[in-house]
Amino acid sequence: MDEEAALIAAICRGSDAAFNRLVDNHQQAVRSFLRGVTPGPEDAEDYAQETFLAVWKHASSFRGGSVRAWLLSIAWRKAIDSHRRWSRSRRRDASYQIDLEDRPAEPGIEAVLALQQALSTLTLDQKAAVMLCLGCGLTHSEAAEVLKMPLGTVKSHVLRGRDRLQAVFGDAP
After folding, report:
1. Model pTM score
2. Can you list the domains of the chain with their CATH numbers?
3. Distances (CA, A) of 43 to 36, 57, 69, 134
4. Average pLDDT rounded to a whole number, residues 99-127
């Protein structure tokens, strides 16, 4: 068994000294490789640490051959995985930004306070019916089911509530 394989075997047995020696022997090569394939030096340092942590945890996965090649393959997988996560995150962020741009502008605090004040003038049943039908987009039938009220009662509450809100705001809510 060569010296490198003996280090791996010792790491499998939990030897800190063997692990430290392996890191000393290969950290420069791993860090140099990662600096060449990652966006910044901080990323290279992070992936190098992740690489050696993976070696500590999974040394038993070594199947022979070049230890340096094995370490660099782990480093490569760490870099690729991170790049994939970064790409997915960028796509999600871009999609979210597009969604934000497509949304209507959020109402100002004054409008929110005015709406809360107007809703406070409604009875609880009227407020619930208005919020379900006008705020949440439920049909009158769906709101009647949620509120356990007759359909006609819900329609009446929505009509009266809408009238009160229109009196406060001047327009349909």
Report:
1. 0.52
2. 3-102 (1.10.1740.10), 109-169 (1.10.10.10)
3. 11, 21, 20, 50
4. 73
